[in-house]
Every structure is written in structure tokens, then in C-alpha cells.
Amino acid sequence: MAGALSRRESDHRVYDDIVSEPLLKRRLRSKLIPGLSLFVLVVFSPYAVSAATKAGAPWWARVVATLVPLLFLVIGLAFARLEVLVLDTPNGRSLEVHYGFGLLKQRFPAATIESATTVSRSMIEMGGLGYRGSLRVLRYAALVTRGGPALELQLTNRRRFLVTVDQPEDFVAALGK
Questions:
Q1: What's the pLDDT tens digit per position in 110-145?
Q2: With 0-12 CB in 10 A as exposed, 13-18 as middle and 19+ as buried, what is 121?
């Protein structure tokens, strides 16, 4: 199957039988987001259980009491491990962001990256911690784990993606944009 992507070993990508290791790989510092999610989960769970098991509780209280802890568990797992990689593919160098131990991936193929720059922003300028925005709806998204230096990608269709990463200039050089 031409152009198919399959997974071999932990950090290798296979494109048409061409194996390449990531040119650049950094794990983002993201202890605050999973920590806050775990804290809310631990604090809210007893109240959720008591509300769900209370006699005469409405059905929607049981649904909320079940879904809110699950939501915080999913958020905590998604942000427990974040990695940013630059990959050398047959179509050029691309960027991948791995969320939650690689279970979720956000790919930016070389054809969609118009330019890459280094910026320095505070958390307030980026809208706070976490994933902010929407590339499809707002044409801007940011993965913010802290304030400070960040990698900003100018994408096709006037979209922008920003990710806070240590030494973003290394990513700009690795992407060659």
C-alpha cells in the first residue's frame, strides 16, 4: 500500500518501506495539568458518588456525577505525556504532537506548514493552560503547558498552531521553514 503509515517499534515511522527516526523529539513539561485534573478527580469523586447514590436523586444528577469524573480522568491522561516530534518523510519534514502516551496524535504534514517561527508568549496571551482554540473553526490553536518560548506554525488556509516547547529554535531549524 503506497504511502501507508504503519508503526514499527516505539520511535520509528515507516513510509513506503523508508524507516526514519525522529529528527527532533522533545517531551513537554506538563505536570500541572494532570496534577490539577487528578486533584479535582479526587476531591469531586466522593461528592459525585454521594449525589449519584442519594435516594430520590434526579437522573441527570447521576449522569453528571458519572461523566464529570470521567472527563477529568480523560483530560489527566491526555496531558500526562506530551511529545513533539519532527519527522523526515518522503514529502518533506513534518511535525507530530503526541498526546497521552501516543494514543492521540496531531500531524502537520510538510505540505501544510508554510513557515515556522519562534515566539515568546505569556500564558495569559495564549489563553491559559491546555489546548486552546480550534484549527478548523477559529483557524488558531495553541497547546500551552507553560508561558515562555514557543514554536508557532503558519499553516495553509491562514491557520496557526502554537506549542510551548523548550528550545523552539531547534524545531524551526529541523523543519527548515
A1: 999 999 999 999 988 888 888 899 999 999 999 988
A2: middle
| SS3 call for 90 | coil
pLDDT for 7-66, tens place per residue?
Answer: 444 444 544 434 467 778 877 766 677 777 778 778 877 877 777 777 777 888 778 877
Q: 74 lies in which domain range?
A: 32-78
DSSP 155: E
Q: Are residues 50 and 12 in the same domain?
A: no
H or E element in which residue 111 lies? none
Q: Are residues 58 and 142 in the same domain?
A: no
- Full-model pTM: 0.70
